[in-house]
From TrEMBL:
InterPro entries (alphabetical): Dimeric_a/b-barrel, YCII
Organism encoding this protein: Chryseobacterium contaminans
Lineage: Bacteria, Pseudomonadati, Bacteroidota, Flavobacteriia, Flavobacteriales
Family: Belongs to the YciI family.
Signal peptide residues on this chain, from the entry's feature table: 1-19
Origin: domain of life: Bacteria
Annotated ranges, domain YCII-related: 63-135
Pfam (any one): YCII
UniProt keyword list: Signal
Stated name of the protein: Uncharacterized conserved protein YciI, contains a putative active-site phosphohistidine
Length: 156
């Protein structure tokens, strides 16, 4: 039930933000771009969402925890540079599901997404666990990544 509620919320937010950006002038359809992004006839494609949850391992050593989080961030950057992660980020509020953050992976394969999330040092150490969900969203989603460095003054 909680996974259905989460997915409905994500789809609602995605639909709402997509609708907010529409203008009255519809851009000309670009078949080359659609094909390069793997878009279907609706401009959409399957992805896999990984929700990071609080893991079973509690690490009190601040130096060790800092090292794991540094590795976590470096791994996100590596996967993003490889085109595997298209969205990643922490949740800003505690929740009853203990969701800590999320990845949207550029794959429809839950198995492939699981292989990728297992490369995270914080997952390997048990600081984070995860849940995996199939998701259907805009094929243009990865395009925002090329602009992120232009708007970020610092890396976390």
């Amino acid at each position: 039930m909680k996974s259905q509620t989460l997915l409905i919320a994500i789809l609602f937010i995605s639909s709402f933000s997509f609708a907010q950006e529409k203008t009255t002038d519809k851009p000309k359809f670009n078949q080359e771009l659609a094909t390069s992004l793997g878009a279907d006839q609706y401009g959409m494609k399957p992805y896999t969402i990984v929700m990071l949850t609080t893991g079973t391992t509690k690490i009190e050593d601040k130096t060790r925890m800092s090292s794991l989080m540094k590795g976590h961030m470096e791994n996100i950057g590596k996967l993003a540079n490889e085109g595997k992660i298209v969205v990643a980020g922490p949740l800003l509020e505690k929740n009853k599901e203990n969701y800590r953050g999320m990845f949207i992976f550029n794959t429809k394969s839950k198995e492939e997404a699981e292989q990728w999330v297992k490369t995270d040092p914080a997952v390997q150490a048990g600081v984070f666990s995860y849940e995996i969900f199939p998701w259907y969203g805009s094929a243009a989603l990865p395009l925002y990544l090329k602009h992120h460095d232009e708007i970020a003054k610092e890396n976390p």
